[in-house]
Every structure is written in structure tokens, then in C-alpha cells.
Specification:
Layout lengths: L2 H24 L6 E7 L2 E12 L2 E11 L6 E8 L2 E9 L6 E8 L5 E9 L5 E8 L1
Antiparallel strand pairs: 1-2, 2-3, 3-6, 4-5, 4-7, 7-8
């Protein structure tokens, strides 16, 4: 086999292997939903992603703030189908970012997640909700 033929065969093989990997990286997850918006001087984000943990189907729920005052304190309340499942106070880092996350098992029918972040000792409060099937 000539050098040119070998290079052509290797290039074709590499393309066949790389194409599905590229599609796997580019293709979005089916039930991942994000909400974001303004929160005082910063921004909030609520993200709900389908996951499976220890054989249980559920959702990874992430909520966060960015661009808020560094070291400011925030109370997050996360609700799943109207029930409070997390209430925690966190301090923003030196860049003004603060995050919380939780795993929630799938419930029957639609799942509704909501989060509210309130600045401790301040007047700023923001939140969002996401409903997934």
C-alpha cells in the first residue's frame, strides 16, 4: 500500500470515528431547561437537567447568581411541586457568584421547580420557575 493510500484510509477512518463524537457533543440534552434574568445588579439562572442517579430517574436542579455584591449573603428557597425542599443561606464569592444545587426524584406527571433568592438584610429578591414533563 502506498503512503498516499494509507493516509487516505487513515483520514477516512478518523472522520468516521470523529463524526459521531462531534454530534454527541453538539446535540442538546432532551429535557434540559434554563431560565435567567436580572437580579438587582446581577443575574440569576435556574437550570433543570434530567439525570439518573443510583437507578433513580430525576432532575439536577441548579440555581445561581452572578454579578451580585461580593460577599453578600443570599437565602435560596427551592420548591418542587410547591413543596419546599431546600432553604439555605450562602455567601457570594469575591466575584459575586453564589450557587446551590439539588437532585430531585421524578414525580408523577409534570414536575414544577421554582427558586427564590433573597438578599439577607437587603431588599433584592428574584426567582423563576420551570415545569418539565
Amino acid at each position: 500500500m502506498s503512503t498516499t493510500t494509507r493516509i487516505t484510509v487513515l483520514t477516512a477512518a478518523a472522520t468516521l470515528v470523529a463524526a459521531p463524537l462531534t454530534l454527541a457533543v453538539v446535540a442538546p440534552a432532551h429535557a434540559d431547561v434554563d431560565r435567567n434574568g436580572a437580579c438587582g445588579a446581577g443575574r440569576y439562572e435556574l437550570s433543570v437537567d434530567r439525570e439518573r442517579r443510583a437507578g433513580q430517574r430525576g432532575f439536577e436542579v441548579d440555581a445561581g447568581l452572578e454579578g451580585v455584591a461580593p460577599y453578600s449573603r443570599w437565602t435560596f428557597v427551592l420548591r418542587h411541586d410547591g413543596n419546599r425542599v431546600l432553604e439555605v443561606t450562602r455567601t457570594a464569592d469575591d466575584e459575586g457568584d453564589v450557587d446551590v444545587d439539588a437532585f430531585r426524584r421524578n414525580s408523577a406527571g409534570k414536575d414544577r421547580f421554582s427558586v427564590r433568592a433573597t438578599q439577607v438584610g437587603g431588599t433584592t429578591s428574584c426567582g423563576a420557575s420551570i415545569t418539565v414533563r
